[in-house]
Amino acid sequence: MALLLLLGQLLALMGYGGAFYLEVRELEEKCFIQEIPDGTVVIGNYKTELYDPAMEKYQPSPQWINLFVFVKDPENKNLLARQYGPQGSFTFTSQSPGEHQICLHLESIRFALFYDGKLAIHLDMQLGEHTNDYAEFAAKDKLTQMHLRVQQLVEQVELIQKEQEYQRWREERFRQTSESTNQRVLWWSILQTFILVATGVWQMQHLKSFFKAKKLV
Questions:
Q1: With 80 as the cut, is the pLDDT of residue 142 above it?
Q2: Which residues cross the membrane (predicted)?
Q3: Residues 6 or more apart in contact with residue 213 via CB below 8 angstroms
Q4: What residue segments make up the domains of the chain, in order of their start?
Q5: Which of 50, 89, 164, 181 is the most buried (most CB within 10 A)?
């Protein structure tokens, strides 16, 4: 039992996620990059707020405010393009490892926003096993605390394996990029050397011709 608790504490330190706070105006798009291993479930819980100049603070957005979410994978393919309400969550699953672009913008269903159109987005990103509701699992499957903890540890280990595979993939990509760069540098050095040698030979031939012409004179 103590070993399980210790392992759980160590694995918990390696969790994913992040909270974001964005201030935007209507139709202004905000994008950020999230590195995600392949086959990882991502859930974004969000709420939007509209600035009230009379109270000089943000208030919960009315229902006529919509959030548009666009997600692209490292190959620039669309994983998600959907419209949501002023508060809720969105979900997608990564298909390939690497940097995913997540873009958000707010839009009203009316012709123009009131309150000067200033908005705020609170976003909480959860990746991997953090997307699971273990309390619901326990109630549904009637799991004991020990069984539930073991299931959590198994899923966390799977998440760590995905992260290790992703890191190996990044290292391999970096190695290929380095080798390609080194090869280009090598060929450029050879080309520079060839140009210098050719220029030297041409200059020598030119000088020989010049001195021969001087002797003849």
A1: no
A2: 185-204
A3: none
A4: 30-136
A5: 50
